[in-house]
Write a sequence for this structure.
C-alpha cells in the first residue's frame, strides 16, 4: 500500500509539473502572439426578433497559431491567470472599435457591438480612460458599445468593481451579464450593479426540451428581465424549436448557430443580408 501511495504521489507531481509547464509555454506563446499580431476577431450576429433581422454583433477573439485557429477557451483562462488578459483585452477593444468605424464608413450601420471583457481588465489601471479614448479616436457613439462581463466575476460585489462599472455607464456604454444563470445563486448583485442586458447561458438552451428545470429557468429569466426592464439575449440558439420557444415567450434578442457562426469582418454584412432574407 505504501509503495503504491508513493508512486501515486510521484505520478501526481509529474502530472502537475506537466500542467504547469504547459501553461508556462502557452503564456510565452501568448506574449509572442501579441507582439506578432497573431490575434484576430470574428463576429457573430445578434438577431432582433421584432425586426426579424440582425442588429449587431459580438466580437470573439481567435488566435492564429502555427497555421491553426485556436479558440478562446484554450487560451483566455491562461491569459487571465498570467496577467496577459490586460494587453490582449486592450487589443480586442481597439480592433473591434476600429472595425466598427470601417463598417460605418462603408455605410453598414450596426446598432450594437458587444465585446467581452475580463474583470481583471476592468480593474486594470486606466481602463475607463482608455475606453473613452478609443471611442473618441474611432468616433463611435458609446451607445453602440456593450461590454460583456461574466456573471461569475460580477458576484464579487466589491466597491471598486461597482465604481468602475458606473463610470463605464456614465460614458454611455452598456453592460451585459454574460453566461447568466450559471454563476451565482443569489441575484442580489443585479440590484447593485448598473447592468442593461442579461445573456442567458447556452447550457439552458441545450436542455430546453428535455429538462423541465432548464425550461423553467429560461422562462424565469425572461420574466425577471421583463419586470426589471432589462434586455435579454438568448445565446446558443441552434434549432428552430428553440428559436420558436424564445420568440413565443418574450425573448427579444438571439444569438447562435441557427442564425450564424462567428465570421470574419468581411462576411458580416453578407450574413446580415442572408438573415434578413429568411
Ligand atoms: P461567450 O462570451 O459565452 O461567447 C459565446 C461562445 O459560444 C462563443 O465561443 C461562440 O462561438 C459560441 N457559440 C455561439 N453560438 C453558439 C451555438 O449556437 N452553439 C454553440 N455550441 N456555441 C455557440 P468562443 O468564440 O469559442 O468563445 C468562448 C468564450 O471565450 C466566450 O464565451 C468568452 O467568454 C470568451 N471570449 C471570447 N472572446 C473573448 C475576448 O475578446 N475577451 C475575453 N475576455 N473573453 C473572450
Ligand atoms: Ca460573451
Ligand atoms: Ca455567454
Ligand atoms: Ca460562455
Amino acid at each position: 500500500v505504501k509503495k503504491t501511495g508513493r508512486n501515486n504521489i510521484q505520478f501526481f507531481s509529474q502530472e502537475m509539473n506537466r500542467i504547469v509547464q504547459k501553461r508556462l509555454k502557452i503564456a510565452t506563446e501568448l506574449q509572442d502572439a501579441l507582439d506578432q499580431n497573431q490575434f484576430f476577431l470574428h463576429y457573430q450576429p445578434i438577431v432582433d426578433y421584432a425586426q426579424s433581422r440582425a442588429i449587431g454583433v459580438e466580437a470573439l477573439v481567435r488566435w492564429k497559431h502555427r497555421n491553426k485557429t485556436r479558440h478562446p477557451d484554450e487560451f483566455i483562462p491562461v491569459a487571465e491567470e498570467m496577467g496577459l488578459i490586460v494587453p490582449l483585452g486592450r487589443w480586442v477593444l481597439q480592433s473591434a472599435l476600429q472595425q466598427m468605424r470601417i463598417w460605418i464608413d462603408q455605410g453598414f450601420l450596426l446598432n450594437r457591438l458587444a465585446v467581452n471583457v475580463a474583470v481583471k481588465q476592468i480593474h486594470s489601471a486606466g481602463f475607463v480612460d482608455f475606453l473613452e479614448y478609443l471611442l473618441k479616436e474611432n468616433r463611435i457613439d458609446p451607445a453602440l458599445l456593450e461590454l460583456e462581463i461574466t456573471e461569475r466575476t460580477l458576484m464579487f460585489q466589491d466597491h471598486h468593481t461597482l465604481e468602475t462599472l458606473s463610470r463605464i455607464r456614465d460614458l454611455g456604454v452598456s453592460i451585459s451579464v454574460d453566461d447568466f444563470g450559471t454563476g451565482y445563486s443569489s441575484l442580489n448583485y443585479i440590484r447593485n450593479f448598473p447592468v442593461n442586458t442579461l445573456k442567458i447561458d447556452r447550457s439552458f438552451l441545450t436542455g430546453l426540451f428535455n429538462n423541465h428545470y432548464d425550461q423553467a429557468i429560461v422562462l424565469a429569466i425572461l420574466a425577471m428581465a421583463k419586470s426589471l426592464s432589462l434586455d435579454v439575449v438568448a445565446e446558443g440558439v441552434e434549432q428552430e424549436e428553440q428559436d420558436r420557444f424564445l420568440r413565443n415567450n418574450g425573448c427579444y434578442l438571439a444569438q447562435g448557430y441557427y442564425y450564424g457562426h462567428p465570421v470574419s469582418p468581411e462576411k458580416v454584412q453578407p450574413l446580415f443580408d442572408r438573415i434578413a432574407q429568411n
